[in-house]
Amino acid sequence: MAKEFLRPEQFAKVQNKSAFLEDTALELSQDQMQELSDLYEGMFDSFKPGKIISGKIINVDSDGVLVDIDFKSHGLIPKYEFGEHEIKSLKSGSDIEVMIDTLENSDGSVVLSYEKAKAMRAWNDIMKTYEEDKPVHGVVTHKVKGGLSVDIGIPAFLPGSQIDLQRVTDFDQFVGQTIPAKIIKVNQKRGNVIISRRKYLGDLRSDARKKILGTLDEGQVIQGTVKNITNYGVFIDIGGLDGLLHITDMTWGRIAHPSELVKIGDTITVKVLSFDKENEKISLGLKQLQENPWAIVGADLEVGKRIKGKISSITDYGLFIEVAPEIEGLVHISEISWTDRINDLHKRFKVGEELGVLIVSIDKDNRRMSLSIKQLEKNPWESIEEQFKAGDKVKGKISNITDFGVFVQILPGIDGLVHISDLSWTEHIDHPRDRYAVGDEVEAVILGIDKENKKISLGIKQLVQDPWDTVEAAYPAGTLLEGEISKITNFGAFVKLPNGIEGLAHNTVLAEEKGKKAEELFKVGQKEKFRIININKKERKLALSTLLDAPTQPAVKEHVAAAAAPRQKKAPAAPRAQKREQTTESYAASKLKGSLQMALEAMGKKDEDDAEDKD
């Protein structure tokens, strides 16, 4: 836009110029002319575009900052040239450095710039500071991608990796803060400056470390700040140098984690235990500031003495009991009870609970003490053989049920085990829980007592006689009886007889007699009549047949006797011709046999083969 100039003719018209000039003619002396000339030259030297001068703030409002530079007019600096923190600090009457941009604009006003003046001053200071490797101070204005923007006279970039010595994830906490930093890169042409607070802090720490290394000695007591906490100890900042306070050097007692005693930021007093100046490694101790309590254990803590203490911690393997300040003993889980099986100590005890214990052993050198709760009472197993013996009948309530049997309490804290095989002579029990429940009262026979291993074997089925002992007398071969189908398998059907014994109707027999398998003929719970065709008392097996119209009783007895007789040794092999002749005769004879007889022979042959295999 072209600049418009004002002409005097626009405002007034002089009719008689010569008369006006004559009336207004002014004569100046030589001194006055020299003074006026000097004044003119000084004014133009002071007020030149691009020059930085100092002015006085007249007013600060929403439009900007009005500044007086002792010129013919005031200059208004736009508000956008100031940061928020700068606007807040400006007050009327305060001095401010500005740059003259234009002496007179279209409105006749002087144009000033705070931003250009600050940048020019800042670049000079920045380059000087960068060359001298001195720190700069700036205000964090806002967060940018990958770091922070810091006003050090001009906007400088502070990368996220250079904010602190440790990794920082929350950049917002620094916004608005004035921070020191070192300039690590400058590009004046592009107007880029990169700074590092990390380098500044590192230099400070390095200087402090050198001072500490020169004054540190073993045994020295110093103060430090908890910087970091790990599972194995605490790192203490002792003025730019980190020392390790190991968990074992924190207390004479026992702690599970260092955070039980300290937290990050705590100031604590520690003792220098060892110092490696070359590698800058320092070992610190906290408990060493106090006397070792184990060294002054008195007569009140002796082996065999009964004492009281509080539970300080609970683990899977036992209880730690504080018996004196910073002196703990261990009650192993095996020393809790003579009789009870304890799987979870947390369900039975609580931290802070007071308990009576017996001191079993003391090792002052290794600071260990073994305690016992169960030894406060007499071992009930020592007199168990005086109260019970094998063959005694006892009653008790079921305290626990497992897949291998049931535990029956016969005395407070003493249980005996009834194995699943000792629950019944005849029934097949898949799981004891199918038949019993915790709290049921049962009667059993003591089968054996193992005092050393603290075990008692019980039996429930031994309360009655074994039905297999009388099975041959009660149910001789050939007896007809009614039974209930108890189970169907892929090889036959199990039938429960009136005395509880189970017999088997094998599929091979059923196929000969009915032409079907068990699953096609029966259902569990179905009642049917059967005939006993074979009894093997030794193997506790009983074979059944569905053919009720069987050969005469003597024939059946003869088959049973033949099946029970020991198998004869095989004779030498006959010539082939003789063998073929025998085979033909046996085939002809088999044609004359009935289906029942064939089944009986098949079962007998199977029993003989089983007996031979066992032999």
Estimate nothing, just give the exact number of structural domains: 6
- Gyration radius (Cα, Å) is 54 Å
Total strand segments: 30
Oligomer: single chain
Description:
The chain is of the alpha+beta class and 615 residues long. The chain has six domains: 51-132, OB fold (Dihydrolipoamide Acetyltransferase, E2P) (Beta Barrel), CATH 2.40.50.140; 133-201, Beta Barrel (OB fold (Dihydrolipoamide Acetyltransferase, E2P)); 216-289, OB fold (Dihydrolipoamide Acetyltransferase, E2P), CATH 2.40.50; 301-357, OB fold (Dihydrolipoamide Acetyltransferase, E2P) (Beta Barrel), CATH 2.40.50; 380-463, OB fold (Dihydrolipoamide Acetyltransferase, E2P), CATH 2.40.50; 468-567 and 593-614, Nucleic acid-binding proteins (OB fold (Dihydrolipoamide Acetyltransferase, E2P)), CATH 2.40.50.140. The strands form six sheets. A five-stranded antiparallel beta sheet has the order 3-2-1-4-5. Strand 6 and strand 7 form a beta hairpin. Helix 8 (507-513) packs antiparallel against helix 12 (595-614) and helix 10 packs parallel to helix 12. The N and C termini lie far apart (126 Å). The model is unreliable at 552-571 and 576-597 (pLDDT under 50).
